[in-house]
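Hi R.,

Here's the chain you asked about this morning:
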Amino acid sequence: MYVSQIGLILLIACVVAMLSRRFRLPYSVGLVAAGMAVGFVSQAHGPQLTSDLIYTVLLPPLIFEAALQLKWRPFRRDLPVTLLLAFPGVLAAGALVAAGMHAFIGWGWVASAMFGALIVATDPVAVIAAFKETKVEPRLTVLVEAESLLNDGASAVAFAILVSIAHGANVQASAIAGYLLWMAVGGSLLGAAMAGAVLLLATRTTNPAVEITLTIIAAYGSFLLAEHLHMSGVLAALAAGLVVGNLGHKHAITPSGGDAVIATWDYIAFLANSVMFILIGIHVAGQGSRIFSATAAVVVGLVLISRAVVVYPLSAIFSRTRLKVDMRHQHMLFWGGLKGALALALALAIPDTVREKSDILLAVCAAVAFSIFVQGLTVPWVVSALRLRLKDD
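And here is the predicted structure, written out as tokens:
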């Protein structure tokens, strides 16, 4: 991307932010629409979306910032619910989507499984962007954000395992289980350890600029080191954000530095979201009229069905416990399961040896466009219809 392109994207983001607030529309929807307009006008000369740009540059700060805002006590309280929705839920939903794509579209099992793994997770970038504009009941916010962050990690782990299998790795159950533990548990522990080291350094300074820089190191350092060690960078950044957000203010970061850290990460998230969603819009526009194909319709149907199959039965497991998920919350978890940047990043990272790669990219664009323009645009209406908005809002 050229400097002029970055400047144009930031200008568009500022204008969209002002218009979205004026017309009370979800910010993410406005950004994608603006990106599509840029894509139609500039066509091949516009800024390009790449897997590295999304996954390595834009995703780590967004994961970290979201985790930074999560309070440990409510996160821990609902952890059994969100873990069940994230890990077994991703497996079940991914298997359903893969079987559907193989049966109805005729893709090979490898391509179908990869698509199922990358499309079933609710992308935290899209979900959080949609819900920040709508003040909902606190527990629902925790459920949506925590589940989206966790199943983001689960989706990335599942996709990485499938890519390894496609490259000829050991497919024995014991080897896969070991790899899964290494990626998920190892990534989480590494992120927490790096955050702890950063906070230890922060106790040696009272300079807010240094404290901010240390948190940036925690975000990118945990993600990149985990990926280098073949662990989950997403879960590492999530763990690092949780540790910094919940322990930093109490033990390491000064009060003035804490305020500066929060303000800085709000701004970083604004920049990353802006670039992300505009580039998604440009990429969707590049698919042209193919996005309205029969394959796209099948994809949208399978994604919605798989989401329902995950949310309602798994939530019912807790119906007689203190962790019972209100039916209105279940409806919102279902409809708020937006797709976004992670799905595109993983689709772009599919090996070229997978012959269905271009078809997968088209299917992902269709699912992302539907989730943002239909689900994302109706989130405020659904919140009001289900009476989930805070009374003082």
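One quick note: The two ends are 40 Å apart (CA to CA).

Cheers,
M.
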